[in-house]
Write a structure and sequence with these properties.
Structural class: alpha/beta
Largest sheet: 7 strands, mixed
Number of helices: 10
Distance between the termini: 81 Å
Strand content: 5-15%
Helix content: 40-55%
Order of helices and strands: HEHEHEHEHEHEHHEHH
Radius of gyration: 23 Å
Shape: globular
């Protein structure tokens, strides 16, 4: 009788222990799954004439890679003439952790070309890119990766961040508003922000989209959206906050010159679609 009471009283404790062990096992499996996933993520950072900040950017990337061993980073120097590539190469040789690489283009062809080169050199399951001047914190990357579990393309959207527009120069806001209206009119795209420099893809959609890419200037982002929609891929937008310090810096886009180039680039995308250049 005593034995039966002892066994009965021990049941709750043993049940609690079993549930605890199951919980620990579940968390370990989830962490293991996440680590396995992160081993297949390549992040491309296109850079052009960024010698002034190249060292600082590298240090930020190297520190993030140290905390997140599942990521690899690929700087693509788009034909810089100010020694950007040399600075990054020296930094990589000094640290040599095997997870930060550099590819140098002989000539400048544009940001779109630099990203395309990076995608061609990646064999990861997921490939992302972000601005090489750290306009967006690398802490956005886990959210981008998480979104790609349920879509083919994930894109940062500044309009999803409350109060974001107040941190952006007036000239940038005017150009962004105008360009967005042109994108909607010429390409019939429903997205509220095509130009944020934060995007990610699954491997096969990335290869197909970038193989068809025709635009190398700042309009290439809109072309990526256009191709993703044309091919029937699922696109998800996530909040993307521009770094507060970067928001007040001057843009490389020229307010008087580049809008005309962007307009004709959008026309080029539409024409390529009409004549079958996208397959």
């Amino acid at each position: 009788m005593f034995s039966n009471r002892l066994n009965a009283s021990a049941l709750p404790a043993s049940s609690f222990l079993i549930d605890t062990l199951r919980g620990v096992r579940k968390r370990c499996c989830e962490q293991s799954s996440r680590i396995t996933l992160l081993k297949t993520v390549t992040v491309i950072l296109p850079v052009y004439n960024e010698a002034r900040i190249a060292g600082k950017v590298f240090d930020t990337v190297h520190e993030f890679a140290g905390r997140n061993p599942g990521y690899e980073f690929l700087f693509v120097d788009d034909g810089s003439s100010d020694g950007t590539g040399g600075i990054l190469r020296e930094k990589i040789e000094q640290t040599d952790n095997g997870r930060v690489r550099l590819h140098s283009c002989a000539e400048n062809h544009g940001k779109g070309h630099a990203v395309k080169v990076g995608v061609a050199q990646s064999d990861s399951d997921l490939v992302c890119f972000t601005d090489g001047d750290m306009a967006y914190s690398l802490d956005h990357l886990p959210n981008l990766v998480e979104a790609l579990q349920s879509c083919d393309m994930a894109a940062g959207c500044r309009n999803l961040v409350e109060g974001q527009q107040r941190n952006i120069q007036l000239s940038r806001r005017i150009m962004g508003w105008t360009f967005n209206r042109l994108v909607r009119a010429l390409l019939d795209l429903p997205y509220s922000d095509t130009q944020a420099g934060l995007k990610g893809f699954r491997r096969e959609p990335a290869r197909r989209i970038f193989a068809c890419q025709q635009v190398s200037n700042f309009c290439f982002d809109a072309e990526l959206f256009f191709l993703a929609r044309r091919f029937g891929y699922r696109v998800v937008e996530i909040p993307a906050a521009v770094d507060r310090a970067h928001a007040y810096q001057g843009s490389k886009v020229k307010l008087l010159r580049d809008p005309f180039r962007m307009f004709f680039s959008l026309l080029k995308i539409r024409c390529c679609s009409l004549v079958g250049r996208y397959g």
